[in-house]
From TrEMBL:
Residues 1-37 are annotated as: Disordered. CDD domains: EFh (cd00051). This is EF-hand domain-containing protein. The lineage of its organism: Eukaryota, Viridiplantae, Chlorophyta, core chlorophytes, Trebouxiophyceae. Pfam families: EF-hand_7. PROSITE patterns: EF_HAND_2 (PS50222). It comes from Chlorella vulgaris. InterPro entries: CNBL1-10, EF-hand-dom_pair, EF_hand_dom. SMART domains: EFh. PANTHER family: CALCINEURIN B, CALMODULIN. GO terms for molecular function: calcium ion binding; kinase binding. The keyword Flavoprotein does not apply. Residues 81-116, 118-153, 163-198 form the EF-hand domain. GO terms for biological process: calcium-mediated signaling.
Length: 232
């Protein structure tokens, strides 16, 4: 009398496929110098220099090689108190939304501030800074909050409530082309193309000098020689 086997059948085909395909290839590091240089407006040398800068910033207050909000605000904005602009920039840099900024996020986000980054990309990022609610439009109260924050950071600027409202009204008169009470991305882009100076803060010329400010240690070529000339 026969009986059924309790041993599962072996999938010979899958074993052969595994042998033929060989071991799985390691995935490239998305935060390698080469990967980041390909994704951003930084050169490989600039990416390496940014690593030096990042290493310094990420250990200012917390020795963990990750930039926390307090480190970000102090190191980049010299702000040791609430700063709306700095808060918004940190939130946009924090792509993973885990309240810290790793090197990949730092480099990818900082790229839009590079002088080589095109104006449309800069305009889009600047719009997101002012769009506090993240709903794709700049509302009157959002603009007013930035004006109030500006006064808090600049003691020389002292405007009363009426003056603030007048500035907001004038701004919306010029920018709100559809007269719907909000500034949409198209209206913002029109303004930027007409007057690029409104987002001059989106270009940091210092990023082109980052290699000089944060030189990386000399690297050795395969033949053992230095890859960069020794500075005299």
């Amino acid at each position: 009398m026969g009986c059924g086997s309790s041993t599962p059948a072996v999938d010979v085909g899958s074993d052969l496929r595994a042998v033929n395909n060989g071991p799985a290839k390691p995935q490239p590091d998305p935060d390698s110098t080469e990967s980041l240089a390909n994704e951003t407006y930084f050169t490989p040398s600039e990416v390496d220099a940014l690593r030096e800068l990042y290493s310094k910033l990420s250990n200012e207050l917390h020795q963990d090689n990750i930039i926390h909000k307090d480190e970000f605000m102090w190191a980049l904005f010299k702000a040791n108190k609430d700063n709306l602009f700095a808060e918004r920039v940190f939130e946009l840099f924090d792509i993973k939304q885990n309240n810290v900024i790793d090197f990949g996020e730092f480099t990818r986000s900082l790229s839009v501030f590079h002088p080589k980054a095109p104006l449309p990309e800069k305009a889009k990022f600047a719009f997101r800074i002012y769009d506090i609610g993240g709903n794709g439009r700049i509302e009157r109260e959002e603009l007013k909050r930035f004006l109030v924050a500006l006064m808090a950071d600049n003691p020389d600027v002292d405007l009363d409530e009426q003056a603030l409202d007048e500035i907001v009204d004038q701004t919306f008169t010029e920018m709100d082309l559809t007269k719907d009470g909000v500034i949409n991305p198209e209206e913002w882009t029109t303004l930027v193309h007409r007057n690029p100076d409104v987002i001059s803060f989106m270009t940091l010329p210092v990023l082109q000098d980052v290699c000089l400010r944060y030189p990386t240690p000399n690297k050795l070529r395969p033949d053992g020689s230095n890859s960069r000339r020794q500075q005299q």
